[in-house]
Design goal:
Radius of gyration: 17 Å
Largest sheet: 5 strands, mixed
Number of strands: 5
Structural class: alpha+beta
Number of domains: 1
Shape: globular
Distance between the termini: 11 Å
Number of helices: 5
Helix content: 25-40%
Order of helices and strands: EHEHHHEEEH
Length: 148
């Protein structure tokens, strides 16, 4: 896997003070959803196959960047309603646990009555880092990366 974005340090005190001023509340930590303001997506790592496509195609590289932004803005793409609700709960109540998104890339083709894009990617936030793989790649690649 290849790291494309390094974890950014966060000033927790500044975030807290901004929430105090912005909301006019002395104790914003008592507001539901407070934990999500401290969400840090860690390093963003892509599989070797995704990295290869990013190196060869600027449109795919731009798609990955926009998908990361969507993921961080609670837009999780092509997932079930239940997964979406769990993502929202995990992020806004737990401050990030395990999040999942799935995004379609490229031209949509019609095959046997089904709309099928050129590719799907999945983005997973897992154990403090964000991973991007093609939908067809196994999730154990993330576990292998975690062991390193």
């Amino acid at each position: 896997m290849k790291t494309i974005i390094r974890k950014k340090a966060q000033d927790s005190k500044a975030v807290h003070e901004t929430l105090q001023k912005g909301n006019g509340v002395k104790h914003p930590e008592r507001i539901s959803g407070y934990a999500a303001f401290f969400m840090n997506y860690g390093d963003v790592r892509v599989s070797d196959k995704v990295a290869n496509w990013m190196d060869r195609r600027s449109d795919f590289r731009e798609f990955i960047q926009s998908s990361i932004q969507a993921f961080q803005n609670d837009q999780y793409g092509h997932i079930s309603w239940r997964d979406h609700e769990e993502n929202i709960e995990d992020k806004w109540i737990s401050g990030g646990y395990e999040l999942f998104g799935r995004y379609a890339f490229g031209k949509v083709h019609e095959t046997d009555g089904f709309a099928i894009p050129d590719a799907y990617i999945k983005i997973r936030y897992y154990h403090g880092n964000t991973y991007i793989l093609f939908d067809s790649e196994p999730d154990w690649l993330i576990l292998d990366e975690e062991k390193k």
